[in-house]
Each structure stands twice: as C-alpha cells, then as structure tokens.
Amino acid sequence: MPRGVPTPALTPLAKQLGIITPSGLTFTRVHAGIPALDPRAHRVIVHGLVAKPLTFSLADLMRFPSVERVHFLECSGNSARGSEVLGTGVQFSHGLVSCCAWTGVPLRAVLEEAGIDVRAKWLVVEGADGAAYDRSIPLAAIDDAILVYGQNGEMLRPEQGYPVRLLVPGFEGSANVKWVRRIKLTAGPVYSREETAQYTQPGPDGKIRLFDFVMEVKSVITAPSPGDRLRGGFTEGRGFAWSGRGKIASVEVTTDGGTSWTPAILDPLVLAKSFTRFTFPLRFTGASLAIASRAKDETGAVQPTLDALVAARGATLRYHVNAISTWRVAADGAVTAA
Known about the structure:
The protein is mainly beta and about 350 residues long.
C-alpha cells in the first residue's frame, strides 16, 4: 500500500549553509502516495525499440560502473505560487528545489545493454507509484542522465524514489521519474496525461508550451530573507544560484531595488547544473533597502525581472518562474518580500 505523506515538503533554504541539501530536508512532491517497494523484488524493464528487451534488478543495476554527481533538482512550479506565500519565507517561495550528490548508473549504459534501435528518438519512463506516473524524454537529452539509487552517500529514501529513480540534470523535477519500473524506447513522445493536462503552460499567443524541460538560470538571497531582522552594522549576505543549462558564470546583487548592481563573490566550487553559493557584504545603517540577486550562466542567459518574464511568456506563469526576487529591509531591520 502507498504511504501517504504531506506534499509538497519544502527545502528550508534559509537554513542551508552549503550546496548539499541533507537527504531528510530535500523537497518532496508526489502524485499518488509513496509506494512501499521491496528492493529485492523490484524490477526495471527496458523494452520498445531495442534489440533485446531486458529486465534489471537493483542488484543488476549496481553491478554497472557507477557515477556520483552533484546536481540540483527543481520542481517546475517552484516560485510560481501567489503573493500569499512570498512573505512567509524563502522556504515557501523557493523551497521546491534542492541539491544533492546522486549516485547511480548512466542511463545510456543501461539502454545500450538492451541495444538502442536507430528508430528510437524518445523514451517513456514510468514509475511504480499509484498514478503509474510517466514522462516522455528525448533520447538526445540523456547523455548525463542517471538511474539513481543513492543520494548523499546513502541509498535513496522512499520519498525520493527508492529503490531507483531517473535524474536528468537540469530538467524540470517532473521529468525525473521516481520509483522507475519501465523504460520504453519510442519513435516519438506519447503525450501522456502528465505532459499534456499537466506540466504545460499557455503562452501569450494562446498556444500551449509542451516539453518545456530545462530549468533556466535562477538565484535567490537566502540570508537575509523574509522573516529575518537585521541588526545595525555589517553582515554577510548569502544565497544560491543555479541553471539547468550549465555552470553559473556570475551573480550580481543590488541593495537599491535594481538601480545599481555589484558583483557577488562566488564560492570556488562551481559545478554544472548545481547550486553555486554566493556571498556579498551588507551594511545596515537603519536606512531601508531593497536587496536582490541576478545570476548569469555560462551560455550568457541572465535571470530576468518578473515584468520581462511576463512580457515574454504571458501573465499566466504557472511553471518555470525564474524571475528576480526582491526582499525589502525596513528601517527597523525587518525583512519582507517586495
């Protein structure tokens, strides 16, 4: 029987000090409960446009050469909720994202074991949850994809997809299917419920954006953030930046609502499709401030303002909201969302 848990659970970003989110604090989003799977009996089937359909146990997958990589994972609905939650803290405005060290087997190695047919251009990945949740993934996008069985040095936790989940670094969270039980190679996408009725977004022209996979460049100041109260004098500002297109190239911060920007300091460890930690000096003298961060990734993409995002994609922003977030610091030091 599936185990029910409150959903979604949100990462407490304001309390996270380094780029690795502890396993017990990673955000959780489920659609039909958490299945109670026996790892000894669980199987992953690879079929469709392959030379020979194969079935893998967890033990079979763990015999493959393994990789460990640090990547963020972000729900496409992160930061898309209304102003009623923005003022309650960065956990609620940005908490549908986390960053972990993931261990598993490269997905391509498993597919090549079955023999990829030249006609195969997509794959459909299905989970063993109560919804039989599935998503279509372009075959061309899986070169860094992993069938994951470990997280932060331990086996996956049930709410994170134990015993095996998909991780396509940089793709929206909903594409990273948990509790994987079936992978079917196909000539095209299957247009399942989860990629038509769900996880699509209307554009300003009235057309629906399908297969909007990549999470764009984004950043947020986590300290100070809504709910904090600054004391007079110097404090270190901190935050995280990330991009589904690669490495973070730079982060700028403003204290005057965007009139002027200055470079933040990036930690030396800058990884592709991962959290990058940044810091900046902040002096509070009792004058009100409007602080924000703006990230740029290695492709040249720059984090947009909310007005620019609405102009490009329409006012109905349900998914992939990567707009700059501004926190206001009042004369008494109280920090709130702008």
